[in-house]
Design a protein that fits this description.
globular; single chain; 0% helix; five-stranded antiparallel beta sheet; mainly beta; 214 residues
């Protein structure tokens, strides 16, 4: 419908902008942080970061400081898709038992699978439509820059994530606001789980244009 959705990290709300430029609060209450599922303004978030929208207009939020993944349905109902609020970890398994460590990026593919840049765990996670959480790339708690398949690969502060029409996953393997070191690279995970580096020089901040890896 042409709406734009955005999180307000500090204010703890999710906003909607219509094609006419009308801004409204979709969920949460301005400057009131916390963790509550519920309808629209009853819900609470704690520094929501990444956001994605599926083909059914469900909005998904990486609720960073709560360590959870939240869903806002078209009728405004907020529910927790995965993670245990306030519990840091990297456990896989059923969504209500899985844990995250300050996830920041989120994307959704055409099948409704969610992909999470689990930033402080240095890993990429998948949540299928049955609510099963698994790690598809990287190794929890171990940073690095290695390419390779699945757990052979390494990331360092992955923050952004996107998916193309062929289900390739792209990750901004980032420097984190200068407070944490990062790889400063763009990575690709193909449907077979193989991670490659597309662009950037590991650990080097800059703005040089040019071809891919230099």
């Amino acid at each position: 419908k042409g709406n734009v959705y955005t999180t307000e990290y500090g204010s703890g709300v999710v906003r909607k902008i219509t094609p006419d430029g009308i801004v409204s609060t979709l969920a949460g209450k301005d400057s009131v942080l916390g963790f509550v599922d519920g309808i629209s303004g009853e819900a609470r978030f704690n520094h929501p970061h990444g956001i994605a929208v599926d083909k059914f207009l469900n909005v998904y939020v990486a609720d960073m400081k709560n360590g959870t993944i939240r869903k806002i349905s078209p009728d405004g109902k907020v529910e927790t898709v995965a993670g245990v609020p306030g519990i840091i970890g990297s456990s896989n398994g059923k969504s209500h038992k899985a844990t995250f460590n300050q996830p920041e990026g989120i994307a959704v593919n055409s099948k409704g699978y969610l992909y999470i840049a689990d930033t402080y765990n240095f890993i990429i996670r998948e949540i299928d439509t049955a609510g099963n959480v698994k790690t598809i790339a990287g190794k929890a708690g171990i940073s690095g820059s290695a390419d390779g398949k699945g757990a052979q690969s390494r990331f360092n502060m992955p923050i952004g994530i996107a998916i193309d029409g062929m289900d390739n996953i792209y990750v901004a393997d980032s420097d984190y606001d200068g407070n944490k070191s990062g790889n400063c690279t763009i990575r690709k995970i193909n449907p077979k789980g193989v991670v490659t580096t597309l662009a950037g020089v590991t650990g080097q901040i800059g703005s040089s244009d040019g071809k891919g890896i230099r």
